[in-house]
Write a structure and sequence with these properties.
The protein is of the alpha+beta class. The chain contains eleven helices and nine strands. A five-stranded antiparallel β-sheet has the order 1-2-3-5-4. A two-stranded antiparallel sheet has the order 6-9. The protein has a two-stranded antiparallel ribbon with strand order 7-8. α4 packs parallel to α8, α6 packs antiparallel against α7 and α6 packs across α9.
Length: 329
């Protein structure tokens, strides 16, 4: 049974000595993995208290807490957006209620992301990837090499292939991508590892906060960009990647191609999730999605997963490039 916001407020006062709450309300929907309440103290500051409802949520919360502690004040000064801070915790029925400083901003669905927001997302992701990797290693969080990132993809592909439910055309496409050495010649960076539209908070067109750091690690930067490829408007990922590369200097020329692979492998992971749970509805859904993806890639022969080449530019494209260059000088 869900805990009331008043119960959560009482837990918060136990977790944070001296916290003087004057107002409390339920935060988020009732069907999630957490009981959550928004608190207001006497000084007008806002806080969030969460209690996990299941083991998966408890594991996620514990990992997120480790990451938030790793993101020290010095590291946070390198980010132009807010990251929640741990305030206190208290035990409750074999788990923990954890109180966080509230991060302000509004969530926007993937379908609601427009061009200005996409540009801000690209800059925010680039800021994360520009953080020094040393603090991740010092905190004991995972540090993956490019080869280890590749092996992880190969393992997912092999496991999905073993189900016998992935179309041969997709397996060939994915395997070809893993065998293309130039695709995997990249410098691992700090990544959030779990980014999605639900991770981001906005004020207008600007990203004001990033939530959900439970997968913080050093790894493939493409993982933080792959979710954008699911946008119906093709301009959204392109604008985000342009803004990202403007900050990062375009050092990783194959980041979009790997992001495409990761995006497609999410369907393979969904299939594996269904088979592990023996949930036929999930398996059937994954098979349908994989079939649609197969049809899509067959009709889009100009968009393979492979090393990015520089296309011949039309006259108007050259003029546009020159105009942008002049404005930047």
């Amino acid at each position: 049974m869900a805990r009331s916001h008043l119960t959560l407020a009482a837990l918060a006062t136990s977790a944070v000595p001296g916290l003087d709450i004057v107002e409390t309300s339920v935060f988020g929907g009732s069907g999630g993995d957490f009981d959550c309440a928004l608190l207001t103290d006497r000084d007008g500051r806002h806080w969030l208290v969460r209690v996990p409802r299941n083991e998966r949520a408890e594991s996620e919360q514990s990992a997120d807490l480790v990451a938030l502690r790793a993101l020290s004040a010095g590291v946070r000064t390198r980010l132009h957006f807010a990251v929640s801070a741990f305030a206190g915790q208290t035990p409750i029925n074999g788990t923990r209620a954890i109180v966080y400083e509230f991060v302000y901003g509004a969530k926007v669905s993937l379908g609601g992301i427009d061009v200005p927001r996409a540009s801000s997302i690209g800059r925010a992701v680039a800021a994360i990837h520009s953080l020094p990797t040393s603090f991740v290693a010092d905190s004991g969080l995972p540090v993956l090499s490019s080869i280890e990132c590749l092996r992880s993809c190969v393992t997912t592909i092999d496991r999905a292939a073993a189900t016998g439910l992935v179309p041969a055309a997709l397996l060939s496409r994915w395997e070809a991508a893993t065998e293309e050495t130039r695709l995997w010649q990249f410098q691992p960076t700090v990544i959030n590892g779990a980014l999605s539209a639900d991770s981001l908070l906005f004020a207008g067109a600007e990203v004001t906060g990033v939530l959900g750091w439970q997968e913080l690690r050093v790894g493939d930067p493409a993982r933080d960009l792959c979710w954008l490829l699911a946008a119906h408007d093709e301009a959204i990922p392109e604008v985000a990647l342009d803004a990202y590369n403007e900050v990062r200097g375009g050092a990783d020329r194959q980041v979009r191609q790997r992001a495409m692979l990761y995006s497609e492998l999410e369907l393979a992971k969904w299939l594996l999730h269904g088979t592990e749970l023996r949930n036929q509805d999930i398996v059937d859904d994954a098979v349908t999605l994989l079939g649609a993806l197969t049809d899509s890639v067959r009709s889009d022969v100009m968009n393979p997963i492979g090393p990015q080449t520089i296309p011949t530019m039309a006259v108007d494209e050259v003029e546009s490039l020159l105009a942008r260059t002049e404005r930047a000088i």
